[in-house]
Design a protein that fits this description.
The chain is mainly beta. The protein has 3 helices and 13 strands. The strands form 3 sheets. Strands 1-2-10-7-12-5 form a 6-stranded antiparallel β-sheet, with no helix packed on it.
Length: about 190
């Protein structure tokens, strides 16, 4: 498994090597020892979740304020356009975003550090996205940023076909100062 660093400190892409043959493929999607070499404590994950999205669906941009959460995200089937925005106070890349194509055929995943917002758009119908999270969910710490915030200028590949009401009515960064002030600085 290859681990690639990105311009956002702590945001990593994990790229396994699927073994392919006439039956399909086999892939190790996570390896604790390899992750530990990159600074990821694989034993810290407390919850696994899965979302299924139809073509064009947008989910996000979601961030956990307070102590935050680290998460490992992978598209287990289909493909998604994935976005991570650094919202950590004092980070040299604060306000910047990085995009990825997460693909069920490649089985690549990303490690999203606490204090970064995350969202994605389904590029296939369906697209199954798996999450491993290292903190219990606390809805009082949820903050949603507008997926189409003009200050972020994210170039989504498709028109949004559907999203939750919370995502549809999310505020842009400029209007989220109170919530953003609750994001802990730096890595946890």
């Amino acid at each position: 498994m290859e681990i690639r660093r990105t311009e956002i400190e702590g945001l990593l892409e994990l790229r396994p090597t699927p073994h392919r043959d006439h039956r399909g493929f086999f892939s190790r999607t996570f390896d604790t020892a390899t992750a530990a070499e990159a600074g990821i404590d694989g034993r810290a994950f407390l919850q696994d979740s899965l979302s299924r999205s139809a073509y064009g669906v947008v989910r996000g941009l979601h961030v956990r304020v307070g102590r935050g959460e680290n998460k490992l995200v992978r598209c287990s089937s289909g493909a998604v356009f994935d976005v991570v925005v650094d919202l950590r106070p004092g980070s040299p890349t604060h306000g910047r975003h990085v995009t990825f194509r997460l693909d069920g055929d490649e089985q690549n995943s990303i490690y999203v550090p606490a204090g970064c917002a995350h969202g994605f758009q389904a590029l296939t119908d369906p697209a199954d996205t798996s999450y491993r999270i290292d903190a219990e969910h606390d809805p009082t710490e949820d903050l949603t940023i507008a997926w189409d915030d003009p200050d972020l200028a994210i170039e989504w590949p498709l028109p949004a076909s559907a999203m939750s009401e919370a995502d549809r009515h999310a505020s842009p960064l400029a209007e989220c100062a109170e919530g953003l002030a609750r994001i802990a600085p730096g890595p946890r």
